[in-house]
Amino acid sequence: MDEPPLLSRLSFESVLTRRYVVASYWLVVLFALPLWWSTTSIDRLSLPASRVHAQQRRNVIFPVHIHVNSTAISDVAPFIQEVQQRLKADTYTLQSSGIDARVSDRRLDSSAYDVVLSRGSRDPTVQDRRLFFDIYPEEDGLSWMTSVMRLTDTVTQLLAPYSTYSASTVRELRVMKYSPRYRLAFTLLNEDAASGNAAMSWNIKESISSETYFSILDRLSVLHNFTVESQVQFHAPLAFDPRTLRVNGTEEHGLTQEDLTVFINSAEWTLSSSVSNDPVIHFVLFVPSSSHSPLHILDYDGLRSRSNAFMLPQWGGIVLLDKSSSSHLTASDLDPAFTIFRYQLSTLLGLPDFRFACSRTKRASSQIGSSMRYCADAHWKTWRGVQKRWRASWAHAAASSSVAVALRHSSRALSLSSRAFFNPGMLALLYFPAEHKYAVYTPLFASIAAPLVAAVVREVLAWRRSRKQRRAEKIADARPVEPERRKVD
């Protein structure tokens, strides 16, 4: 029986063909490696850290002019001088916030803050950019110095609220998350229209279009796009019974502070539509039923509060309407409620009343610098498709041609950065980091690379053996053949 031929000597295979096959596999791997690397690698985004660091090293100073208008003091110059010296000596609050306060009895520009002094003992009140402050009527030096100290403390608290107010954190928790679009949902809510004490309709369109409320919407149009919707509900029962009170022989009802936290009955009340995913700010005008009227808000001591409105953080505001005089609420009837709604909207959007904006600007600059240092130190990596949006957000944030333009650019920058963060391409950073890549590709490439490397090693060894064999054959062929000697007997 004939033996099978050796595999290396098959008629359809040669050494050169086998080596071409092995080389073709490696050529495919080498040419495909750059494509694989470019499609699976995550490029690091180059942020303008040097520009931000350069701006951070600069001391931001905000000049503030305070105009003192006084008819209560004959010689106001010493009073102003003493207040100025005390403001300059306050290095912890004002200077750390970057505020350079200048007090004088002359109005230098239209952006100055007004302080109106008068004789009396009333508490300081604020109206727009004007502070009404009463100094003690006594003319002695102690009362004069006490008034100076009180005015200095009041001005300091108003100019740098985040350095002096411990309630700043609570105030920030009320503010809704920024969004370029908001829906304002106005609801006239009757607890029980069948009880007789109900408002069946309201002139909501005229109230929103009035100067009291529309002015704030017009000013905020630079930052937000508002969509207004309204509705009237005739049956919205409370999930609890208000507390019954006896005041001067009259039965009244009150809401405790615990009741306010569960006032909104989300299970039975439909306060907004679901036509879009935009954040909703609710404004509810609640008309209690005749069995719960009049309805008041109680303070922590259980006493009747002077306010008939309250807010729910990051949700909206509620105003209680004790008793409806008619079934239709006119614009004049709604004016007190919409004045409160205007204040609640300002609070929910984080707008200051008499607060000086430089403290927020200072803090924003510090937060940007901290973010940049964190990004640079942590070696953040981003998907290539996100780079344009990141760069666009920083470019928009760098604009400073005017306040209105800066607000528009900052709004655009925040939207772009949020869109970039939630980009689908960013999922690779969260769920597929470099360590996971090695764990996934190592078993795949190991099983492919093992036979390829073994084939190369085998061919190299075979080539070295054949080369050594050919060299030995050449040496043997080149050696001269000696003639055979015969042995003579």
Defining traits:
489 residues; alpha/beta; Rossmann fold; 5-stranded mixed beta sheet; elongated; disordered N terminus
Would you mind describing this structure in some detail?
This protein is an alpha/beta fold and 489 residues long. Among the domains are: 59-166, 3-Layer(aba) Sandwich (Rossmann fold); 173-349, no CATH class. It has helices at 15-40, 49-56, 77-89, 91-95, 141-159, 161-164, 168-174, 204-209, 211-220, 257-261, 331-348, 358-378, 387-397, 403-421, 427-431, 434-478, and strands spanning 62-70, 99-104, 113-119, 125-127, 130-135, 181-190, 201-202, 225-233, 243-247, 250-255, 280-287, 295-297, 309-312, 316-320, 328-329. The strands form four sheets. A five-stranded mixed beta sheet has the order 2-1-3-5-4. Strands 8-6-11-14-13 form a five-stranded mixed beta sheet, covered by helices on one side. Strand 4 and strand 5 form a beta hairpin. The radius of gyration is 40 Å and the shape is elongated. It starts with 14 loop residues before the first helix and ends in an 11-residue tail after the last helix. Mean pLDDT is 76; it is low at 1-8 and 378-385. Keywords: Endoplasmic reticulum, Glycoprotein, GPI-anchor biosynthesis, Membrane, Transmembrane, Transmembrane helix. One of its GO terms (cellular component) is GPI-anchor transamidase complex. It is a multi-pass membrane protein. This is GPI transamidase component PIG-S.
